[in-house]
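Morning. Coffee machine broken again, so started the prediction first thing and wrote up yesterday's gels while waiting. Chain of 354 residues, entered below exactly as on the submission form.
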Amino acid sequence: MKKNITIKEIAKKSNVSVSTVSRVLNNHPSVSPIKRARVQEIIEKEGFQPSMLARGMVSNKTRTIAVVVSDITNPYFTSLVSEIELAGGEQNYSLLLFNTMTAGRQKKADSGFIERDTFKTILEKKVDGVIILGGEIDRDQPQNEYLHALEQLNEQVPVLIIGQKQENCSCSFLERDLEKGVFLSVQHLLALGNRRIGFVGGEENVKITTQRVQAFEKALSLYHNYEPSLIYLSDFYTEDGYQSMTSIIEQQETLPDAILAINDRVAIGAFRALADHGLSCPKDIAIASCDSFPDGDYQIPRITTINQHNQILGKLAVTRLLKLINDEPLEAIELHSPDLIIRESCGIGRKRAE
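Came back before lunch.
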């Protein structure tokens, strides 16, 4: 078996320094055309495949981004990670995925400890930057030990968090406009004649839940009446939508006109609960969602939902992280704007008695 040539051997055969070979591998402009041609000739002749370590010899970069996600089975995270990988690939960066499993059905206790341990592993991998999706940082009040470990990580490698800003954290945040999506959904439901509107899904003491419920209360209080008894929090998954809708059916003397689910998965669970009780959407209860997931257009009924534009979010996250990695200034950005997708699950409106 032919032994793979080393960078030192390429440098010797090309009559250049090891650092010059590394610059060629990193496509650095500060190499003369003659030297670059000699090095590339040897690389092609020997069929050399550079390792990430070799590429980083001069730049001290591995061109690798760590992505920390709390549950890769969650379609929101799956979609966003895919967009981050595509955007990173366009910049010749690869991803190392860390699925902490601190959310979802496989949820483990003490998420803060698990994620702190993950940070240690990330530092061992010598990545250039870190993107964090969900987990302890999304809580209304993250553990102090977790925040301390996160600050230590950020001191050694740039960290970008896709989520709502934590005032006591110095990491860079890329926020979503959670309020606008809720307002768009509530306005649509009201415009169709719905008046008693409930909210299902979302875990307590998590920022995305807290802010969406606050926006829900604000919107209904502005346009109509807010009923706290129609708030049924649980979690972010299909079974949670099922359980919450079941509770509404069994506990409410009069069914609400409509429900706003925290995401498409929760909405699907609510559909199933209605069917199991001889009811249907949108005939008996209209249902809208705050967060579109893949395949929402193929459910029965198709889900009226909010497009959070993960493609834009993923690309923006990579762009801003690379600026942090290269010590470039971050320009101010507006929160990316979600859009309402009107489908079948809200029906065409209710005839109301005057």
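The chain is about 45% helix and 10% strand. Going to sketch it on the whiteboard this afternoon.
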